[in-house]
Design goal:
363 residues; alpha/beta; Aspartate Aminotransferase, domain 2; Aspartate Aminotransferase, domain 1; seven-stranded mixed beta sheet; three-stranded antiparallel beta sheet; 39% helix
Length: 363
Amino acid sequence: MIYLDYQATTPLAPEAFEAMLPWLRDNFANPHSAHAPGRAAKAAVEAARAQVGALLPSGGHVNFTSGATEALNWAIKGTRGAIVTVATEHGAVLDVVEAARTTGRKVTILPVDRCGLVSEAAARAAIDADTGLVAAMLVNNEIGVVQPLDSLIDHAHAAGALFLCDAVQGFGRVAMPERADLIAVSAHKIHGPKGIGALWLRDGLTLTPLLDGGRQEAGGRSGTLSPALCAGFGAAAQAMATRADPDRAHVETLWALAIERFGARWTVNGAIDQRYRGNLNIRRDGLDVARLLSVLRDIAFSAGSACASGSGRPSHVLRALGLTEAQARSSIRIGFGRYTREDDLITAIDRINTAADAQQVAA
């Protein structure tokens, strides 16, 4: 199997696996208990919190959650006032925002241009004194476009609103928005374990709890933390920091290779320059992507977000760029990173090209 779906999840880093093992095998104490084994477990949690926090802005606190979906739910439901967000956000934002609309909160969805970027004029017009929260993704999970967040943060703060950033795809890879008020991140997108994420809250900010209970986390999140998951998350974050330069160079090499190998018959969806290079979303008009995926079952790539797979609907992100339904349905996403070998990527691309060519000849 050649794995090219890094936006859906990433391979577990050996460092994360090793960090988790002692807390899975021997050290089973509750980190919220006062006895010695509990204190040892708590120390592991706090060490992991510091490792994750080292990749986030200063002046805030990391609250562990079950994942980024919980973090985003908490951030949105825990705030008040009108919401302004972006048409290309992940469903973990858009679906929660729509649920908030049913409770009476005003919602504005900002459009994007063909590159996937928000118009500053549209943002300025939408964000006003009634706005309580502006939510925008840093790196888009489907097209890799890096959204310029500074102007959105400026408009949010000028209106007295909070700014929430879904930084899941950019965490450890691109610079975090230093002036954000809330940042959601996930472990399994940075070679950590599934089942844990975090919501970073700026100091002094309080949210209405999403879950009632013991409020074990300082920000008010309830639930017993897993020292194993926390340790794995922390080790993965530390590896992202120490391997940042070689990882970036490797991804740039893979991007250049992929662009050249796919060739002119494919069109890149979204901005090319303002983009995280480990995400290549491309289309070939007339391509039957479902058939392509079926033929190439030993290559893991996708037709869009894993969270929306099986829905039968074309990508809302690609449609927001102005693509037709047919163009959206003829697009694929190739995701690569730290553990992707150049020869595997070449093999996969050559096989994708051959299968796509065969389709068009048959047509």
